[in-house]
Amino acid sequence: MLKAFRSTLHERFIAWALRSKPPEPVPVVLSQRRIYVLPTRAGLLYALSLLVMLIGAINYNLSLGYALVFLLAGLGITAILHAFRNLAGLSLTVGAATPVFAGGTVRFPLALRNPDVRTRRLLRLSLPGQPEVTVDVPPDDSASVHLPHDAPRRGWLAMPRATLETVWPLGLVRAWSYAAPELTCLVYPKPAGAVPPAPTFSGIEGGTPPADSGDEDFAGLRRHQPSDPLHHVAWKSVARYGAEAPLQTKQFAGSAAQALWFDWDALPAGMDVESRLSVLARWVLDAEAAGLAWGLRLPGVELAQSHGPDHTHACLKALALYGG
Amino acid sequence: MAAKSPKPVLPLTPAQTWWLLATGMAAFLPLTLQVPAWLSAVAGAAFLWRAALAWFHQPLPTRWVLSLIALAGAAGVFLQYRTLFGQQAGVALLVIFMALKQLEARAPRDGLAIVLLAYFLTLTRFLEDQSIQTAATMLGTLVIATAALASLSDPLGKPRELLRLSGLMLVQALPFMLILFVLFPRVSGPLWGLPADAYSSLTGLSDDMSPGAISHLVQSDAIAFRAKFDGPPPPRHELYWRGPVLPHLDGRTWRPGNRAAAKDLPYRHSADSPSYAYTVTLEPHNKAWLFALEFADALPPDATVTADAQMLAKKPVRERIRYSLRSHTAVAHSPASTATLAEALQLPAGLNPRTLALGAQWRSEEPDALRRLDRAVAFMRDQRLLYTLRPPLMSQHVADEFLFDYQRGFCEHFSAAFVVLMRSAGVPARVVTGYQGGERNPVDDTWVIRQSDAHAWAEVWLAERGWVRIDPTAASAPARIEQDLASAVPAGDPLPFLAGPGFDFLRELRYRWWAANNTWNQWILGYNPQRQQDLLARLGMDSPDWRKMTAALAVLCGAVLLVLIGAMLWSLPRRDPVERQWARLSRRLTRRGLARQGWEGPQDYGRRLAVAFPAKTEEISRIVSLYAGLRYGTLSPELLTELRRRVAAFKP
Question: Which has the closest alpha carbon to B519: B292, B285, B286, B281?
Fold first, then answer.
């Protein structure tokens, strides 16, 4: 009950602290008005100790005791200023997030720019409920951080507001600020684990399966790409031109490759949406790994047969955003 | 904070461990002489043990071992002080905590405890000593402890960086300290009863005098009090600072008499004798008596006086106090009650037979007391008594042995033997202790009276003149009175360090140091409610009370804070004017969902805008090219003005 109340209050505070409705335009500059400072638990303990020491100094009439307590109190105030300055004036921009599969961890790329002549020490950034990342930003320079965030579901994942905080230099006070720039990351469906083999001929109605796997009709060479399967490398040309020459990949115009269609409707009728997407994602990955070309048919979407990283991404994106 | 994942507790890194060890040492070392030797040894061993464990990367001892040490330490403290709650016992326990905490520090939380303990130990050091040197030493401790605190949140910080940061922050804390020190409303403590052993470290004259007591005391260079004369000081041989009066002889020991305190001085000073006004700043000595030049014409505020003309404060002097007096060199009349006179003739039975016989002989030969006094002074002079800091050990008949056997002694022997002699001759006499002389500091014209100036003399009562001061030491060793201790004792006698000759080349330096110490004492250590009122009144605050002080405190601290924040923000870079216009455009279009995206370059954004506002394509492309030109090309003021104008005029 109390906890719920506290968390509601906290959310209210953040909404107020962010001033404008998220997302904020980038760069997000941490102006002094949006930086908050409060003592940490250690700071409270420190203050309590000073109080006890002050009482001791009064009781024993220790002039230097007073001086000591007041110097340490001044130190506490100085710590507030240093923590505040450690955040003030930083600006935050965003990069492009690399898609991940559901169940994995998104890393939202952020860049912090320090326009100052002092290094910003030990800045801790985190997303709500997620582990924090610590970074230093050198003077007049930028530092990039990747904020981890769980990606439980497929689709677009918007970065929630990030907390930037620091307890530098003494750990007695915590200065913090919130930033909610617009940054989204695509989350692909989680590929299924054990699946039936890809329905190689599902796309061709009434066709007969050829005897081989589509490596039949040699159609020429093209420059090798890392995603090409090794058994398609034109090793003979390597032998001929030597290791310095670029690798070539054999291309095939096999009819079997053209026939590779992954079709939503070909899956068993009783299967639910997420399982279908998982299976399709698995097939896409397997086909790409095997160097095959494939096409994808979803209700209302059809992606022509192709292969390579771009095609993989396009297919996985279609799966990720399906129905959304 | 809501929904925060628990942070893993990291163990202390080796660097942090060393920092904490250094902090513990820096706090403990200045205290080594303040706590019992066994405790210093135990704590030192614990520090060494911890250092060895850290050096050889060994695990910390188990809780069992630590509990055992803690129990043994507490038992030791209890045996030493018979309590665990006194002031000294408290300091000893803090030292044990510090040593044990070192041996069980695993996480940064323990590190915080060590740093806070170090701050506490710094405070306890001031219970014993608040000199400039101690303050400087403890400032060093603070720098180390604060660097250790910084290392707790910055485990990878370089030692030099951490020290620099700690020093810098402490310097920045100074203005706050100064304001708080001056304006924090002072209360005169204590807030509650202090432990019984609170002031055991203070030295000074004691309530009684047995042979060897003063010669032991004069080995100390500690300052008893300071005096500042308004105008020229009296000649040196008049500088008798009266302290405890001891009329009662109990075997070998002289004790005070009737302590009944009155408000009226038991004498009338002679109006035509020279008088001197002065202010005494008395060091705490944990006894009630106050020192004054003989013979003060009034009492300090809140003081009383005994029938022996000894001034007493209401309670033991436990903090430095100041009082102003005027003294005359002579007394016109000092009546004495029969009880006082009877006490001044009392002699223990069966002691000092030879002295008693001599006195009895004079009494029968001379009917006049004044003549007997002259004979006694002449006798002392003729005995060729030697003034020395190393008198031979005298057993029982101290006066006899001093006058007839060894003929060597210190002022306590001179005065005691003389009083015994006078009493046996039927003249009332008593021992007076106090200080004689002092050293004038030419830098600030203050007289410094040290324990090494402690002295004992005698007073005899003559019916027609009242009590008369006789200094038997002066008769035998006039140099002690006219010059100083160093000139009076034979060469080769060990002297208190500062009383020795041959330090002339250091004299100037020494005087400056004393003057600095005096200022420190008056303004830093002696800054009490009274001083605070005076200072604030002088600074223009009329009738300062705690409300006004608190208000001024808040205002000044706030002002300093604002200045610092202002300086900080001023140093933040201003936003680039070109960038500002560009952001302004984006901000204005935010409501239409056309805010610039982080990844959008000027051309991309311009194209998007052109699609949204086909009618304004030209205007948009002009703004975009102006921005791009200014941003990536040269900054021309005219173009900047144009950009500003066009952005301002852009109304979607």
Answer: B281
Closest in B1, B126, B524 to A10, CB measured: B1
**What does the DSSP assignment read for B586-646?**
HHHHGGGT-PPPTT--HHHHHHHHHHH-GGGHHHHHHHHHHHHHHHHS---HHHHHHHHHH
Q: Tokens in use for A175? A: 């200065």
Report A:96-135 residues touching B (Cβ under 8 A). Answer: 96, 115-116, 121-122, 128-132
Q: Which residues pair with B227 in a beta bridge?
A: B280, B447
| Alpha carbon distance B103, A204 (integer Å) | 77
pLDDT of residue B9: 66
d(CA B188, CA B183): 15
Residue A243 has pLDDT above 70, yes or no: no
DSSP 8-state assignment for residue A233 = B
Distance from CA of B90 to the nearest CA of A (A): 12
Give me the torsion for CA of B8, B13, B15, B20, rounded to 10°: 80
Binding-face residues of A in 12-41 toward B, CB within 8 A = 25-27, 29, 32
Q: Please give the residue of chain A at the shortest CA–CA distance from B585.
A: A25
B165 chain-A contacts, CB cut-off 8 A? 169
Alpha-carbon Rg for chain B, nearest whole angstrom, is 38
Residue B309 CA to residue B298 CA, distance in Å, equals 11
Nearest to B433 by CA among B213, B221, B277: B213
**Candidate from A61, A78, A122 with C-beta closest to B169:** A78
As for the ipTM of the complex, it is 0.78
Burial of B424 (0-12, 13-18, 19+ CB in 10 A): buried
DSSP state of B574: P
Pairing of strands B223-230, B240-246: unpaired
Q: For this structure, is B557 an active site residue? A: no
- Please tell me the predicted confidence (pLDDT) of residue B24: 94
Asked if B528's CB is within 8 angstroms of A68's CB, the reply is no
Question: Taking the model in full, what pTM does it have?
Answer: 0.67
For position A217, what pLDDT does the model report? 52
Q: Is B269 a catalytic residue?
A: no
**pLDDT of B292 strictly over 60:** yes
| Strand (E) or helix (H) holding A251 | strand A248-252
Alpha-carbon Rg for chain A, nearest whole angstrom, is 29
- CB neighbours of residue B635 within 10 Å: 12
Q: Name which of A86, A134, A170 to mutate to probe chain B: the one with the most chain B Cβ atoms within 10 A of its Cβ.
A: A170
What is the spatial distance between Cα B218 and Cα B387, in angstroms, rounded to a whole number? 14
**B543: number of Cβ within 10 Å:** 8
Sole residue written with tokens 């920092």: B19
* Residue contacts between A and B (CB atoms, under 8 Å): 182
